[in-house]
Design a protein that fits this description.
Length: about 130
Amino acid sequence: MTMLAPGLHSIHGCLLSRVENSMDLYLEILEQTPYTTLVHLTYYFQHQEGQRPDPDAIMRAFHDARQIEILNLQHWILPVNRGMQHPTLEQKWKVNLFASKWLAYCVGQGHSFPRDSHTPAGGKKQEALV
């Protein structure tokens, strides 16, 4: 998460990372504390019913440890979180592996949420959503 949002502890609100030839990535800060940040990260796909978030993750980032905890992950195409009401160690491992690969993919696509998320840089566009 630190590569995707290096200044996460100082970011607020809802942000959009737009990269050419890639899906828009949405980041919403749900809660900030001195040591953690609760975030919602997703893409929005158009469907007949409207927009559908997928994958759709709620994560807690621990600033000092530079780690994240997946609190909720919804992924419709490859459901890795079956039975998350009482997850087993294997289910948690699958969810964390998926999240790790997804975050690496987002960074590889060029997505980022820098501290000054209102300034376009290098063909990327980050903007605050109201």
